[in-house]
UniProtKB/TrEMBL annotation:
Residues 255-289 are annotated as: Disordered. It comes from the Bacteria. Residues 266-289 have a biased composition (Low complexity). It comes from Labedella endophytica. The chain crosses the membrane at residues 21-44. This is Uncharacterized protein. Keywords: Membrane, Transmembrane, Transmembrane helix.
Length: 289
């Protein structure tokens, strides 16, 4: 406990002074490093005089809310390839309504969103931009799927580092009733059904995502155990089912539910169908696509 008496020792005063000086110097150095790390990434807007980050911000930022967002350009040698660093926007003119797939050639933790219109105004103020449709996290061995509107595709990229994306026509297997396999797969369904029975045996993850024009990305199943489960998706004339599964650890079956055009028992998304169907034979781990 302090005695409350003033410090008489010159040595004690010098020790305290040195400690205080060292602490102040260390704090100043740390603050300088933080400031340098922050301002070294910033640039000045010549029109407004405001500071902005030319790299497009970070993964946690919404790129469509950045008025200084860079626009990624196609590669000179491959017009299907786009390169960027951090958040960016990709605009592709002259697209049709045919679904496209987006595959990362380089980069991790990339999130994609799409403007729900083909009539794009690049000069539209930030405050007037509509909230885009989320279209997933593409992987090298499992692309994300986008359903563009005729005109211009506006794709928003969220990333923390440099990335390379390939955007091209969808490559997927057509499914009309039942299909089985192992590993990752894209399945495209064109019909009036809105549900299917999903079966999985083995180990590892089993993730099913539905892509459609109406809702973009829709998560159906995220599992790591064997399952036999019926799931439904939002009604659409074309649906792409994305299957993610370890090829050497499990096998799966997708059995599309069938309904007549005038069948009133067709379920709404999230509901279990009232019609019954004969169960399919469960997949085996030795089963191949």
């Amino acid at each position: 406990m302090s005695s409350g008496q003033p410090i008489q020792s010159d040595r004690a005063r010098r020790t305290i002074a040195r400690f205080a000086g060292a602490s102040w110097t260390a704090g100043a150095i740390i603050m300088a490093l933080i400031a340098f790390g922050t301002f070294s990434r910033l640039a000045v807007d010549g029109d407004t005089g405001r500071l902005f980050e030319p790299g497009g911000g970070g993964y946690s930022d919404y790129p469509w809310e950045d008025e200084n967002l860079p626009e990624a350009q196609p590669d000179a040698n491959d017009p299907d390839v786009y390169v960027g660093n951090g958040n960016a926007v990709i605009r592709i003119d002259g697209v049709t309504t045919a679904p496209l797939q987006v595959t990362p050639i380089d980069g991790e933790y990339i999130r994609l969103s799409m403007t729900e219109s083909g009539d794009i105004d690049p000069e539209l103020p930030v405050e007037d931009r509509e909230w885009p449709l989320r279209v997933g996290y593409p992987q090298e061995d499992l692309p994300s799927v986008v359903f563009p509107y005729a005109g211009t595709l506006e794709l928003w990229v969220q990333a923390d580092e440099q990335w390379i994306l390939r955007i091209e026509e969808l490559v997927a297997d057509e499914i009309t009733d039942v299909v089985s396999g192992q590993g990752n797969r894209l399945l495209v369904y064109r019909g009036n059904a809105v549900s299917a029975l999903f079966e999985f045996v083995g180990d590892g993850v089993f993730i099913v995502t539905a892509y459609s024009r109406e809702v973009g990305e829709e998560s159906l199943i995220i599992e790591s155990d064997p399952i036999e489960q019926r799931q439904s998706w939002s009604p659409s004339d074309v649906v792409v089912l994305s299957i993610e599964s370890s090829a050497d650890r499990g096998a799966w079956v997708v059995d599309i539910d069938s309904y007549d055009d005038d069948d009133e028992s067709t379920p709404t998304p999230g509901e279990t169908p009232t019609t019954s169907s004969e169960p399919t034979d469960p997949p085996t781990e030795q089963e191949t696509p």
